[in-house]
Amino acid sequence: MMQEHRGGRGQRVDLTNCAAEPIHIPGRIQPHGALLALSPGDLAVRHVSLNIGALLGSGTEGLLGRALPELLAPAEGGDLESVLRSPDPSAMNPLKVRPRNGGASAWLDAIVHRAGERLIVELEPAASPGDVSFSSVYRVSHAAIERIQSAEGLFEACDVTAEEIKRLTGYDRVMIYRFDRDWNGEVIAEAREADIEPYLGLRYPASDIPPQARELYLRNWLRIIPDVGYQPSDIVPEPDAPIDLSFSVLRSVSPMHIQYLKNMGVGASMSVSLIREGVLWGLIACHHRTARPLSFEIRQGCELCGRFLSIQLAAKEKLEDRGRKLELEALTDEVVATVSRQEDLMAGLSESAGALMKLAGASGVALFHGDAVTPLGLSPAPEELRRLHAWIRRHVADRPVFHSESLARLEPALAGIKDAASGVLCISIPEPDPWYVVWLRPEVIQTVNWSGNPEKPVESSAEGTVLGPRRSFSLWKQIVERTAVAWRPAEIEAVELLRRALIELDLTRQVVRERSARAAAERSNAELEQFGYIVAHDLKEPLRGIKSFSTFVMEDDGAALSSESQSHMRRIDDLAGRTMELINSLYEYSRVTRVDFSFGEIDLGEVLADVERRLAGTLRQRGAVIRAPRRLPRVFCDRIRIGEVLANLIANGIKYNVSPEPWVEVGFDETTIPTIFHVRDNGVGIPADERHRLFTIFERLSTAAQYGEGTGSGLAITQRIVERHKGKIWAESPPGGGTTFYFTLAEAPLNDP
């Protein structure tokens, strides 16, 4: 039958549920002090620990319901009630108080804090003035802090802290205990009496400190057990809701932990949290072979040292790796410089294989991209690398950085590559098909020194199952296989920096390629425009001659020609005229980019009036009207060219229109930046599947023949004019008919090319 112990009253604690034990609400305290729980409104005592009489000289019956200021007198006539009612009474700790009706102790330390709706007051016998004072503790703490600050690195700072805490407390052993990512702990610094067994370098399994205990360490910086053999004192009367003692200095600890300490031969203990950037990093763990109380002042000095070391942790760790970091930065620069000289990323990385492996202290590197696999240094066989690549694609995907010291633990199927790749450190470079750079480390069979067997947290004896993690704390060696040397933080940071540098280099190359392509396209367009300009200019004269000569032939000899020949001559005249129209359109299209525009501030309303006069005949013939709901604004443009834009869009709106009352509206929306102008009609509309061809020169829509076929250049020229004004043009045409052309113009004077 497994032994059972109780945490809070009514809460059974056994070896099967210790990780869920509610250690913050035990319902009892350690008896080196007494506890009172007050209601904040009237400061009346609602709950007390049963040992209260030893300090106040009065049993629980004479205290419950009474206001605390009636029971305690503050030192030097202070105002106890004001302190208790302040927003943060703990800022005044400790309060020196004395029982008003006498008691076993002349002066008491009152330590106050708020716990939800309750006010908690804990009383301890005050230290004698000759034994300790804040000034003496300050001197020792100040000297300790100066030594910690001047330490060269993390381990030296931890050694100094252990020595100074031992000097301050007089404990037999002080250890600095650091957690790993799995919450196993390792003693990395120790100050001890010469006649006790060293624990330096030993590891402790995560089960020694369960999650709820780590949570309390994160919330409350200091815990103390002056006498491991204490008998707890219950809090009465038992409250309806448990009293949260997370921040209590007297909180009774788990019987599991008490047995653990007894198994270690510890008579008193204290621990101070080490918290790095909001995460529990480790502990300052103090042990004494016999009972040893510490005054509030000394405890505060220890907490101050712990808080200062916590602040220094990040800086000291960086200082420890400073030399290595400078080396890694130089290697990163070397790799990037080599890659930048190669057009292909894989070729550049392959060329810098030596620096690449040194960067992460790896024996091999694998480069993956698409189906290509490039091994560098010591690496698995190609087929095994492809299996590794497939695993990375599934499990790493696009994570920027991934690392593991034991790939076989994550994927047993890859255990066969442990000789070359037990450890992997991987970066991904985003592409449609991602790049992966994977550093490889071989298996290193390691011996890990544990304090007792980590696989056997509970031991049995003749008396039954022994409560606590184990009885044996002697050295226990574990052989660790299929694991590589762990990747150091500086190495992980270095490959992260390399990843960013490679991405920046890749983006820079893309920009250069895009600019080159754009420049080539612009040169090609310019050459085509020049060619079109020359062709259009040079063909005008021959075509005019053809048209003139065909006219002369018809006038002089038309009667003598057969009807078939006359038809041929008329066809020649029509084709020459049509070709002239196309050449004129090509000439105008190419001219738009070549001629200088005359920009100025123009009244667009006056431009529209000019256009309306030019189209007056067409408007009368079709019975069409031009609408302008409000006067158009002044704009910065080339007056003649913007007139062509409006004329072309309005003419199209009238031409492609079968409405009995055709109209075209010209308006604008000044709430946008830049202003959006529109030319809207109630015409036939534009088929959705043909809108993408609107602005392509010589492209004719399916409706063109029905309404009088044009050259298909008007909208292309219009678009070029708008673009010369640093604007854009687009069209919308709903299914029911009608089209709206929108365009913008630059809002300020521009340097036209």
Instruction: Kindly report the oligomeric state of this protein.
Output: single chain
Strand order of the largest sheet: 3-14-5-4-9-8-7-6
The CATH C-level class name of the largest domain: Alpha Beta
Helix share of residues?
25-40%
**Mean of all residue-level pLDDT scores:** 79
SS summary, helix count? 19
Backbone shape: elongated
Say which CATH homologous superfamily of the largest domain is assigned: PHY domain
Identify the CATH architecture of the largest domain.
Answer: 2-Layer Sandwich
Structural class: alpha+beta
Residue ranges: pLDDT <50 for 5 or more in a row?
A: 1-17, 446-454, 460-479
Q: Supply the number of structural domains.
A: 4
Number of strands: 32
Largest sheet properties: 8 strands, antiparallel
Q: What gyration radius follows from the Cα positions, in whole Å?
A: 44 Å
Estimated share of beta-strand residues: 15-25%
The name of the CATH topology of the largest domain is Beta-Lactamase
**Gap between N and C termini:** 94 Å
Organism: Sorangium cellulosum (Polyangium cellulosum)
Family: In the N-terminal section; belongs to the phytochrome family.
Catalytic activity: ATP + protein L-histidine = ADP + protein N-phospho-L-histidine
GO biological process, one term: regulation of DNA-templated transcription
Provide key terms for this protein.
19 helices; 753 residues; single chain; elongated; alpha+beta; Beta-Lactamase; 8-stranded antiparallel sheet
